[in-house]
Amino acid sequence: MYLRLFLAALAATTPAFAQGSMGGGQDTGGMGRGGQDTGRGSDMGGMGGMGAMRPRKQSKFEQISDKLKLNKDQQQEFLTILQVGAQDSANVRQLLVQGRSALASAMVEGKSTDEIGQIVKAYAAAEAQMTTFEVKAFQKVYAILKPNQTSKAPQAFELMAGIFEPQPSGDRGMGGTQVRERSGR
Amino acid sequence: MFRKILAVGVALASLGFAQRGGGGGGRGGGSEMDTGAPMMMAVPTKWDNISNALNLTKDQKKAVRTMLDDGNKEAASLRDQLAKTRAALADALQAKKSDDEIKQTVDAYAAVAAQMSQMEMKTFAKIVTSLDENQKANRAGLAIVFNTMNGIFRNKNWNED
Question: Between A9, A50, A150, which is nearest B6 by CB?
């Protein structure tokens, strides 16, 4: 029972903190889901305990900026696009957290397949809304690209998956976004 | 009672996000040293987050790790479908397909993404039910694991970003 209430509380409160982490300024902190498949296989054999610390990963903002070779002005525009998208998608972000919490609760409580199916259906609708925000943001970014920058746009869109969602620990979505001068451009 | 638990949930759920959003806990990457070289800060892996958050015993570590490995294997097909539907959406956008066509592609992607989240929460539920009562009462730990599970099976290696 306590666990169920905890999950409900988590769903109710997490989005508020996710929004709070957006903050102002350049460092928007903590948005975005884990990165794409690295294709490096699944060799977990050597990992154990605390011995597997990893270096800081590039934020999605940094990855996409690099992928598209955005110049300083384009990076600034991209950042603004992401900040607007994150604000606009706040309610959907909350729905997604609530949906995951509802799924977890239903499974812990052993709810029926039908009941879980209903939750998944509602979750898919929220996911579609979030993806639509990603699409809109991508279309805005695409519009500021020069013709020679569009070839890798599809890969950039793949990197945008989950960019407006709260991220798991250690992942860096929009976090630490810093518009910097790109040398030689 | 619910209010009390809600308040605890508010306080504890904030821990995970505060750690991420503020760049605290020694992770605040992105800064640069005087030399101009990027400062590489080590960050804990997902497994570190999960095992430490729940204070797992040696046996529990083995069991939970197996649950995550099994979940990841089970999610392989969904992972492929996610990649394909996302790529199809990207292609549709670049080809400037109609709104209706894009909506269909979005819905197809979202349906798979929802199934993936179901898989992640299924594994989370397995982990939770395997915990002892003290561990289940560790709301901060559960919050960290709950957040860590989001998107965990989207990579071939669940412990990688």
Answer: A9
CA angle B50, B55, B56 (to 5 degrees): 80
Whole-model pTM: value is: 0.75
DSSP state, residue B152: G
Element (H, E) at A14: helix A2-20
Note which residues in 112-151 of chain B have CB less than 8 A from chain A. 113-115, 117-118, 120-122, 124-125, 128-129, 136-137, 139, 142-144, 146-151
| 0.90 surpassed by complex ipTM | no
A168 is written with which tokens? 């798991």
Q: Cα–chain-centroid distance for residue B161?
A: 10
List pLDDT tens digits, range B15-58.
333 333 333 333 333 333 344 445 556 788 999 999 999 999 99
- Taking only the tens place, the pLDDT of each residue in B110-128 is 999 999 999 999 999 999 9
